[in-house]
Structure formats: structure tokens, C-alpha cells
Amino acid sequence: MDIFDTFFRKFAYKFDKGYPDMNNNQDVLLLENILSKVIGEEIILNEFSKSGSIQAAKDFVDNSSFAKSNDVKRFTSGKYANRINSSKVKDFDEIKDALIDYFNILEDDIEKIDAGAGPAANDSVAGFLLNTKEFGEIYISVSVGKKGLGGKLNEKNFNNNINQYASKENPIKVKLIASDKTLEYSNVVEAIDVAGGTQNKLKADTALLSPSGGKVANISLKQSEGFRWAALNNDDTDFRQKFLDAAFNNPNFPIELKPNPEFPGKERYEMFKKGTDQRITLVIVTDAPYTKDPKNIFGTDNPKTIVVGRTFKPEDFKFDENTNTLDIKVDHIYENLEEINGSPFEPVFVIAQHSGNPYGLDFRAYPKFMAKLSKKGTGIEIKYSDLIK
How far apart are CA 156 and CA 159, in angstroms? Predict the structure, then answer.
């Protein structure tokens, strides 16, 4: 028992709960990586059906409209027969949405796996672990270019540039420097990826660790050129259902939903102005209390998450060996909702088309600079209070 006590004392800080939750795929993958390094051979705790994965990949390539229109091919060799590739699509999120639509699963039933981890332990590319009705639990490897990695690549750059200097042998001071604010964190030994806990309103992407393994900072990293705030938690409000009821049944409601012809037989809809064929691509919902709740932006992490904005470049990181301090240039730092309100990043509640979500609709907050009604007339405003009394 002593060996397990030692093991978990050493690695417990890497898990959000202080121990690996075997019902959390990210925890399982992290545990697999740790055990593989300690033992010196590949350890896989979550098995998937290889034959089912190959059949599913073939089915997707042969029969999905997305695969046909985007030149998606499947590798034919035995080792890589569950790998797909597109000469046109280089965005993992776009492929993820296509897999969700084709296999008729929800966001909770699919997870991106990084190369070298879990099912991709011996693979040079990432892929998706899916839980499907027809094929069971499967893994589809995806070969794309570097385009479209977006936020995850930005987070990786941030962490790697800190870990280049910080270690348990050499704790450093990290300074986040914006034009109007500077935050300092002392005795930082590592920056780790902590994304993936949003189901419990955990919003951080990165955590800075102290020598004891405790978190000295939780940071949500946002690329200033474009990002989305959190999705609406449908357990907190029945707004989504009220919107659907009104769009289907209320003749005075300005929006109606029509089946999306690209997904026959599935509950995917497109928004139209009532009684017309004029598409609506964005609905701005005014007076929504959802955007006023700081938990939807900063979460419930401990310590409290801060929001830091920038697409990081190598020159943004300056290390002073004399003071053992790493200066990091950022565009903005937000510690509370009051600092965000009135800025271009102020959260605005919107409804947008998203074929990967239930009903083909995305209910979430956008930053204000992205929540603009098009001059082409494809947007509309409604009041939250018109649906939720």
C-alpha cells in the first residue's frame, strides 16, 4: 500500500479532484500517460473496438455527405484503417461536428484525443473517441494540417514557454503584463493544461503550480481575434425549450424552425424569419440574466479563474535570469465581470446555427464584437423576457 500512497502523493496535483476519476476520459488518459512512463511500456486502461472503429470510419467515408463534399478518404492499411484524411478540411472542430452529425451522437459522446495519448498512444496524429449506438465505443484517427488548432495550440504555447524556465528545482516568478494591469505569481514550478471540466462550471485552461503542487493561479486563455464564451447550461434555465416551443407553435413569434435538408431524419433545424424563406443565422437575446452571472465567465475554480487575452508569440515571453522572472505580454486581464462589461469582450447571449448541437442550434454567450447583426438582414433581436416571464 505504501507504493500507492507515494505514487498518488507525487501525482495527485495533476488531477482536478486530487485523484484519477475513472469516469472522466481526461483523467484516464492522464493516468495512462503517467503509468506508461513509470512502468516503461504502453498502458491502455480504456479499450475500444478496433474492428468497429475501422467499420465506422469506412461507413463515414462511404456514406456521409460531409465526406463526399470534402474529399475525405480512409487509409486502407490494416494499422491505419481507422484513420481518415481530408485534402480540404484542416479544422478538427469541423470534422468533430461532422462525426457528431453522422453518428447522431451528442457532444458528451465524443472526445478529442491528442497524439501519443490513450488510443493514440502509438499514433503520430490526434483523433476522436466516440460512443456510438451502431458501433459501440470506437476511435477514429484524423490526419489534418496544423491549420485550425486555434485555442489549444495557443494554450500549449503559453504553457511550454513557462515550462521552459520553471521547474521544481528552479521556481520562478511569472508576471502577466497588460497595458492597464500587471499580475505577479511567485514560486511557479509548472504550467499545466486543466481544460475539460466545464460541466461543473470550471473555466480555466491553464493552472500555475507551486512547489507543493497546489494551484497558485487558474487562467482562462482567449485569443483576441475571436472566441466564444460559455454555452448555456440547460439545467439552469428552460430558455432553450421555451425558444423551441415558440418557434414551432407561436404564430406571433418572429422566428420559425425548418428541418435542415442536409440532415434528413435528424432533429437539426435552420432558423427563418416567420412566414418567409429568409434565413436567420444569428439571434441576439437582450436582457438575458445568463450574461450577468460571473460564474458563466469565471466559473467556480479555486483559486478564482482570471481571463487573459492574447494569441501568443515567442517574443511575448521575456525571462530575466537576474531576477528569475518571466514577463509575459498580454492584451488584457479580466478578474471580474465589471471589468469586461463595456469592453469589446462583454458577453452577449446569442442563438446561432451549430449542426453538432441538439436541434442544430447553439445557445451561448459571444463577445460583443462578434455578436453583431449582419447588414444583409440575416440577424434578429428578441427579448429574453418575452420567453421567460
Answer: 5
